[in-house]
Structure formats: structure tokens, C-alpha cells
Amino acid sequence: MTTYQPKPEHKFTFGLWTVGNRGRDPFGAEVRGTKTPAELVYLLGEVGAYGVNFHDNDLIPIDATPAEAETIKNSFRKALKDTGLVVPMATTNLFFDPIFKDGAFTSNDPKVRAYAMQKTMNAIDLGAEFGAKIYDFWGGREGVETDSSKNPVDAIKRNREAMNFFCEYVLDKKYDMKIVLEAKPNEPRADIYNATTGHMLAFIATLDHPEMVGVNPELAHETMAGLNFMHNVAQAWEAGKLFHIDLNDQYPGRYDQDLRFGSRDIKAAFYLVKFLEDVGYDGSRHFDAHAYRTEDFEGVKDFARGCMRTYLMLKEKASQFNKDSEIQALLAEINAVDPMFASVTGKYSAEKAKALKAMNFDRVKIASRGLKYERLDQLTIDLILGDR
Q: Is there a single domain that holds both residue 166 and residue 86?
């Protein structure tokens, strides 16, 4: 029996905010105690994770003194050394403190925007101190409940100004760091700006240093809006902008649930893992999810192990799919190349256009052909469920 043990080359990472989540929700208080950042690193070392990511205030409380901050960092650094974990990504908490109730970079208050810039520069320094190569921006409060309150064009411009500023800051400090933007359509705001990965890709193209900026798509964020997450990941990959990815699971149309990876839609999870493995994505597989509120910290370990185990099982299934002779023969039939049409498609030329316009097509005959997608889909289900 395969054990599906995580290894460093799998690059499985968790945030301090994921395994450190205490189970609080809008209707109930915390059900788990507090662990220090160092203790959470040891927990992740125990379950076999590769790395740990953090918001600035996951590591250092917003009101910590300089002496307290140094003590925390020293303990965290020792835990990283003891476990061998690394810090691939860091980010800034610009959504929890009341000062950000109307956003950070898009706030109407210039004092809030300036404070958000200061806080982010300090957090970038903190990430760089622990070796983070990716810096994430999630605009959790960058939005509105009423469009009377903000001009969306002004919000776009303010956000662009901030991203351009931080790119220049990273360059000026000579940090080996790229920036990623993380989209979400709603919650905690009614509507959040740059709601999808597609929005973010279009926004990146308008920046002064687009080569430094990519995306960090999150499964739950776009599934909650009813979108096909794998398609959005593919768009980011094709654009050369898939710098990071957040894995979890989610019921469409619900609040942001952050369920254990693969625990709800195993078929969608399979296609996602297959895509990442087929294209050779070599970044972190970051699990931005939480254990059920029913769990103690032993249950948190079960949750973390489950995320990694499911990914590895689906990775094995993806390899099996690619080697399955019946599935591959069917795909070859479905995607058969006709040399006649290869000569008139592709890059435009006047000769190709003339030849294509002269062709005769039997629409009825072409439309009458069955495409065998039902059979292909059932073969996929058979494979996932272990009957192949």
C-alpha cells in the first residue's frame, strides 16, 4: 500500500493562520487554544510540511514592542532551523484591524492609505528577513457595500499606485522577491475590486513593472462565485503569471469555507492537480484551509496530513490517466489532426484565407458525429474511484 508521504520536493506549505486557526466563526467563539508561531512550525514539521507562510501579524502582533518582536522572531527562527522548514511566501494583514474597515490602498482616507503603505513596507522587510521569495497581496477590504461611497476608477488608480510603489521598494532594497495578487469576488466586503484572476491579469498589464507581478489564485475564492478554478489557473499559467497557488475546497455559492483540499469536489481537485503536474508547475502547493471547528490540535494535524495525502493520491491518479491506454486512445481519436486543415489554419496569410474561403463543409455530417465525451468522463470517474 502506498503511504503518500510528503517530501520536500512536493513543496507543500501552510500558513500560520491555517494550522493556527482557533475555530472561531461569526456565530461562535474559539474552540482551540493559542499556539505560538514557533509551536506551529514544530506542528508542521511533525506532519511533514515543506514550508510555512505568514501575515506580518500572524508572526508579530500589531501592538508588539520591538523587544517582544525580537523574542518572537528568535523563537520562530530557531523552530525553522530545528525542523528544516522554509518561508516561501509572506503577506500583510490589511483587513483585520478596524483602521482598514473601508480598505487599505483604496480607502478614501489618505491617512489610512499612508499607514497601509508603511505597514506593508515593514512587512516586506519581515518577509525578506526570513527568505520569502513571494509577497502576496489579498485585498480583503478593498471594496464596497455601496457604490455611492467610492469611484471604482479612483480605486483602480490608487491600487496601481500602491503596487508600483512596492515594486520600486523591492527593487531599491534589492530583495529577491516577486509580488502576487490574490483575487476574491466578495466576503468580507459585499464586492471586492479585481474580483477574479482574469481581473488581476488585466490589472498587472497596466503596472510599471509587470514582469515582477503575477497571481496567486485561490480555489475557494473563485469556486464560491461558481467559476471553474482550473480554467483560471490555466489562464494564469498560459500568461506566465502563475507564481503561487492556494489550495482548499469550497461549495459554490457559500461563504468562504476553506475546507480541506479535495474534501468536497474530488473531480475538480483531480483536474486541478493533473493540470499542475502536467505543465510542470514548480511553485509551492500552499494549503490555505482550516480544520473543522470540531477538532482539537490532533485534528488539525489530521487536517494538514489529509491535504497533502489527497494531493499525492490525485497526483498518482493523474499519472495513471496519462498512461491509461484506453483513455489515451480515446483522446487521440477525439483530437485527431487532419492535415488538410492544418495547411489553412494557424498564422494568417492571404493564401490561407483564400483557400479556407474556398472550402466546402458538410455541416450536417460534421454535426452528426458523436464526440464520446460521456465515455471519456466515465472512464475518468472509474479511474478516480479506483476501478481502473
A: yes
Measured CA to CA, the distance from residue 264 to residue 250 in angstroms comes to 7
Q: Please state the pTM of the whole predicted model.
A: 0.96
Q: Are residues 362 and 313 in the same domain?
A: no
Separation of alpha carbons 85 and 130, rounded Å: 11
Q: Which residues are catalytic?
A: 55, 58
Q: Which residue among 322, 350, 375 closes a domain?
A: 322
Same domain, 186 and 332: no
pLDDT (tens digit per residue) in 316-362: 999 999 999 999 999 999 999 888 898 999 999 999 999 999 999 99
Task: Answer yes or no: is 1 within a domain.
Answer: no
Measured between alpha carbons, how far is 67 from 338 in angstroms, rounded to an integer? Answer: 71
Is 271 domain-assigned? yes
> Tell me: the pLDDT tens digits for 223-273?
999 999 999 999 999 999 999 999 999 999 999 999 999 999 999 999 999
Determine the structural domain holding residue 368 and report its residue range: 325-384
End position of a domain, from candidates 322, 349, 371:
322
Retrieve residue 225's grid coordinates. Answer: 462565485
The pLDDT of 290-300, averaged and rounded, is: 98
User: Could you give the CA distance from residue 151 to residue 38 in angstroms, rounded to a whole number?
Assistant: 43
8 neighbors 2 (Cβ within 8 angstroms)? no
Same structural domain, 78 and 204: yes
Q: Same domain, yes or no, for 316 and 332?
A: no
Flag whether 348 is in a domain.
Answer: yes
Strand partners, 284: none
